[in-house]
Amino acid sequence: MIRKLAVIIGIFTVIISVSSCREDFSTSMSTSDNLAFSKDTLYLDTVFSSIGSSTYQLKVYNQSNHDISIPQVSLGQGENSYFRLNVNGRSGKRLNDVELLAKDSVYVFVELTADIKDLSQNSLEFLYTDKLVFDHTSAQQEVELVTLIKDAVFLYPERYPDGTTETLSLGLDADGEEIRIDGFYLENNELTMTNEKPYVIYGFAGIPSQKTLEIQPGARLHFHEDSGLIAANAASIHAIGDVSNDADLLENEIILDSDRLEPEYADVPGQWNSVWLTQGSTNHIFDHVTIKNASVGILMDSNDGSQNPTLQIKNTQIYNSSNVGLLARTGHVTAENLVINNSGQASLNLSLGGTYDFKHCTFVNYWQKSYREFPSVLIENKFEAQDQVFVADLKADFSNCIIYGNENIELTYSISEAADFDVNFDHSLIRFNDYNNRFVDEQIYDFSNTSIYQNIIFNSDPLFKNKFENQLIISDESPAKGTANQSTANQVPLDILGVDRTVMPDMGAYQSILFEED
Question: Measured between alpha carbons, how far is 433 from 436 in angstroms, rounded to an integer?
Fold first, then answer.
């Protein structure tokens, strides 16, 4: 079972040896205790085996009134160390004669790349340490270096002898030219992804036609830049996780994220591409899945033409998409307990028609990185491309949902009269504050029309726990509490955390809780 790193046990002590005055250490008389450090121990965050870390820095201070020339700054393991150094633009594992002016400081930059198999034959994780040594003779000061290296299954396109890499065909463009992307098809033995090791994916991992990718509970998939999953014609993805015994650990949940494990990348949008369900792919199931930091969380290109949903998505969270959380073009989607937040454009975009049924979903958008011109939910029965307008019939039902965000208008439509447009909202909380009367003359926004809108709460803050941190459980003082349609709640009896909602159900994906005072 893959577990999150909880605590690094033990404290690594800085060993500081102080000796008498040494002329080889300074350009003038000085002692080694003139050096001070910004950190006693430099912790590099968890990295995957064979993938380079981010660059970390240590600041070294000369506290004396004299200029100092440090004879040597080096790594304790010397040339055998997996760490790398850079000081004043000089790189290496041993750097001689590092000058440091009086009352000044210098940065030491540290990176690491290591293969866990060189360190341990049987471990899935390995705590790797070394020392940063200042002066390597009788007087020295040391700072410990610590990082955790995780083993992983690496999946990537084949590289050919001529330097090119394997690609996948996406068909032809308008000029008849073939469109290809960096990618590869998963082999039969790669079509079951378990929780034994995380998976690190370069390029698009394709599910071949007539095949199903099974992603088991607790699996972790990490995608490199411009990478993703892509389902070919008649291919399927079954990503079926489970509720964990400990909701904080989320051990049985499936997580799709980038391959950068450092905390500063934890919520950075657009680090990888998307889960792409291409036209003709079929029978996709996502249950207890979190998709983070993609360009488009799920891109659904058309439906499979059957009467059954092409995509069933339950108990799933999509966060930090630089473009759209769920983008469906002529899709056939059923969703329960789906939560989407923090999208550069729309959190949910139903484009070029399709058939949709959303129950107990939370579609919000608290994007803060730049101006956002799209609402949380955009519904269209048309699509414009290359000066052409394509239309398709649309039917979309929302029951017991929350549609909200930090803009006044969080629900809009784009409608062509050349195709059907049928939407229905029941027992839902919606932010639509048309303060400048932009939509007053459009009948579709007549919220008194009970053939479209029934039992709607408008412009009341749902009172999320922490909307900017993707904590979208609602307070027990929320206007969404106890206001959901009981019949719909009986069809979805548990919320996204497995809490019973059959008595006094709340709108959205979560049953409300009493927030503790900070």
Answer: 9
